[in-house]
Amino acid sequence: MIIEPVIKGNVAKNCHPLGLKAALQKQIDHVKNAPTIHGAKKALVIGASSGYGIASRIALAFGGRADTIGVSFEKGPNDKGLGTAGWYNNIYFREAAEAEGLLAKNFVGDAFSDAMRQEVIDHIRTAFGGKIDLLVYSLASGVRTAPDGTTYRSTLGVSGKPLTGSSFDLEAQVLGEQTLQPVTAEQQRETIKVMGGEDWQLWIDQLQAAGVLAKGFKTVAYSYIGPQSTYPLYKDGSLGAAKEHLHHTADVLDTQLRALDGEAYVSVCKALVTKASAFIPIFPLYITLLYRVMKSKNMHETCIEQAHRLMFSRLYPALGAVVTDADRLIRIDDWELRADVQDEVEALRAQITPDNFKEVGDFSGYLEEFHALNGFGLTNVDYSAEVSLEQLLQLKP
Fold it and tell me: For residues 275 and 80, what is the distance between their CA atoms, to the nearest angstrom?
């Protein structure tokens, strides 16, 4: 079959397996040509199949010779569809890592469950050397079923009064307006349950109780704060409440891990095109403006470049001490938040109309990265070639 991209609204409905393999190899090649990371050797990545998760795993494995375990919820191909992009990312990562003599184990299932945590613990004990020295928490989901069976759903909303802003539709490639409604107290509580630090805490608790955390163990979770222009959405709304809980959890875990000489941090990242950010209303337009400005200053980073900079210069710097701000946050959003960058972004925002948004912002760059997440638009892939479903069905995580 010939595979062409299908987008509904701002959601990709399919992927190209061979394109995903090429995209993953591009990230591997970048890391191999970057400075060596002198850090973790046994790493567990929760939410390992796309975005910052897969980038972290690549950086650690191919930039620092780390053995890795990845946990993610993905679907493989069947007679009804090709499956998810993350399914193939997991497979191609494992194949590439094993080809270089590295251990790479994929667990595909519910990362929120105690049963999955126990499966991972059993694997660490029996086939992974007995202990891990890093856990990266990069899980992004709109729904979480807690160990007690309660299901929580996140709500993207604001506090106070409704927020209206410009937002584009990738499928139609038009700019319109979108309004986010204020969240209720219950919606905010559930959003914190899904996107806050509770599950991260459960992972550390269960791993620590099992005795599989090494001396000097580190853990890091990913977050976003953004400039003042995004505060109504990211800082003051339901997302902000969840992120605040995540940041507080890092402090709790840091204290908890002192018995192991361990540390816990949150890394605040740059705005990027990811599976998660594409779902957030209003935000993608800001990303196109930011891309244009940062590319003009030769400061643009993708997930893999951010992940490598985090590991090389912040979490495992040459002088040893983790680099944070006064609030113990690792800031790899520092270039995004430079005053000159934000001033130029806001100057561009003032020029935006439904007729010129593609030219004023880097819409083509956004679209290119969005397609690449799903294996499309790679220059070294023959998209006219037939792809065999039978061969895809033989691939195993």
Answer: 22
Confidence band of 9 (pLDDT split at 50, 70, 90): confident
Beta carbons within 8 Å of 118's beta carbon, 6+ residues apart? 206
Q: Is 234 among the residues known to form the active site? A: yes
User: What is the per-residue pLDDT across 152-181, written as a single tens digit (0 to 9) for each?
Assistant: 999 988 988 898 889 898 999 999 998 888
Residue 42 class from Cβ within 10 Å (0-12 exposed, 13-18 middle, 19+ buried)? buried
As a whole-number percent, the residues of the chain with pLDDT over 90 amount to 87
The dihedral formed by the CA atoms of 28, 34, 36 and 38, expressed in degrees to the nearest 10: -90
3-state secondary structure of 292: helix
Which residues, 6 or more positions from 382, have their beta carbon under 8 angstroms from its beta carbon?
Answer: none
SS3 180: strand
pLDDT averaged over the chain? 95
- Span 78-104, pLDDT tens digits: 988 899 999 999 999 999 999 999 999
Burial of 136 (0-12, 13-18, 19+ CB in 10 A): buried
Which residues neighbour 261 within 8 Å (Cβ) at sequence distance 6 or greater? 215, 216
Contact between 364 and 169 under an 8 Å Cβ cutoff? The reply is no
Set 92, 152, 222, 234: catalytic member: 234
Of 182, 159, 183, 174, the residue nearest 285 (C-alpha): 174
What pLDDT band is residue 235 in, cutting at 50, 70 and 90? confident
Q: At 330, give phi and psi (nearest 5°).
A: -80, 125
